[in-house]
From TrEMBL:
Keyword Cell wall biogenesis/degradation: no
The keyword Oxidoreductase belongs to this UniProt entry's keyword annotation: yes
Alphabetical list of Gene3D superfamilies matching this protein: D-Amino Acid Oxidase, subunit A, domain 2 (3.30.9.10), FAD/NAD(P)-binding domain (3.50.50.60)
The protein, known as: Glycine oxidase ThiO
A Gene Ontology cellular-component term: cytoplasm
GO molecular function: oxidoreductase activity
Organism, scientific name: Sideroxydans lithotrophicus (strain ES-1)
Length: 339
């Protein structure tokens, strides 16, 4: 039983199904319409040299696996997640020497130019297409997805989870994986322990050009522009600690437009065709919780990835599956353990 049908939930279900398991995915709303859908799909920490090794370890592993992962989904389902190595231009202010040192140490290509630092191998995926492909793959493999099914209580007895009480009745399974994003801690209640996950709102704007107006992603501080193949352009994003409030604000709209137009002046003449907000699963240091509950051996978690859930998806699922199967991990996973 997988609780939550975002990128991590569907990818976890897909991996379990490929192993021959029977899997039901419960989703409190429609599939894939929370942070996995709302995000921009940049497959990298925005400035990886500013993040701790615990974040980059998972992110770099995910980045390395993502191309083959997206290709396999496209081949199996016919739905293209639109993975592409578009590159990312990081514009000042940032510590150029620290960035160059980090890139050299971690084998990431970096090209210094008049505008800043170009990272030519940074890729992107188109989140809504990725979610459509993941859903199709789970259903293709025989997985069951139950939408509009909110988990109200995780019921345990004699040291293990016995069933889930939901708005659509009780559901039981041999094992349970919580992939509920920003809702994970609330859903777990007393079982959350130190999985400190909370919603952080991010707002974005969408534009449409006849052709891509930029050759690559452009980043300055927390503001980024993401060009899609078909001329759509995403402008994001805010970080707002406002609880479970997904409303959009005029203040964010104005700020994003002002900052974005500095990077791409043509935006001043373009209409905003969409403005939305999503709730990231915020966690201290952007470090997720992945693994088995210390007191309930049939309860697992794969959540709290904050801004980089899509980037980390292939690696996080790999770590979780290795935990479930008792197989060796690709690196030290102790920072992500459920405590």
């Amino acid at each position: 039983m997988v609780i939550g049908a975002g990128a991590l939930g569907l990818a976890t279900a897909e991996a379990l199904l490929r192993q021959g398991g029977g899997v039901t995915v419960l989703e409190r709303g429609p599939v894939g319409r929370e942070s996995s859908w709302a995000g921009g799909g940049i497959l990298s920490p925005l400035c990886p040299w500013d993040y701790p090794d615990e974040v980059n370890r998972l992110a770099l592993r995910g980045m390395g696996l993502f191309g083959d992962y997206a290709e396999a989904l496209h081949r199996a389902t016919g739905i293209d997640p639109e993975y592409q190595r578009s590159g990312m231009l990081v514009m000042p202010p940032f510590d150029m020497l620290a960035a160059l040192r980090w890139c050299a140490t971690h084998g990431m290509k970096a090209e210094r130019n008049d505008d800043g630092l170009l990272l030519p191998d940074i890729a992107q995926a188109r989140n809504p297409r990725l979610m459509q492909s993941l859903r199709a793959r789970v259903e293709q493999l025989g997985g069951r997805i139950v939408e509009q099914c909110a988990v109200e209580q995780i019921v345990e007895k004699a040291g293990k989870v016995t069933h889930l009480a939901t708005t659509q009745g009780d559901f039981s399974a041999d094992a349970y994986v919580v992939t509920a994003g920003a809702w994970s801690k609330v859903l777990l209640g007393a079982h959350a322990l130190h999985a400190d996950i909370k919603p952080i709102r991010g707002q974005m704007l969408l534009f449409k050009f006849d052709a891509p107006p930029l050759p690559h992603i452009v980043l300055q501080g927390d503001i980024y522009l993401i060009p899609r193949r078909d001329g759509h352009l995403l402008l994001g994003s805010t970080r707002e600690d406002v609880g479970f409030d997904k409303s959009t604000t005029e203040e964010a709209h104005a700020m994003l437009l002002q900052r974005g137009a500095v990077l791409l002046p043509a935006l001043r003449e373009m209409p905003v065709i969409k403005h939305w907000a999503g709730l990231r699963p915020g966690s201290p240091g952007n470090i997720p919780t992945i693994g088995r509950h210390p007191h309930l051996p049939n309860l697992f978690i794969n959540s709290g990835h904050y801004r980089y859930g899509v980037t980390m998806t292939p690696a996080s699922v790999e770590v979780l599956m290795n935990t479930i199967n008792g197989t060796p991990q690709p690196f030290d996973v102790s920072p992500y353990l459920w405590r």
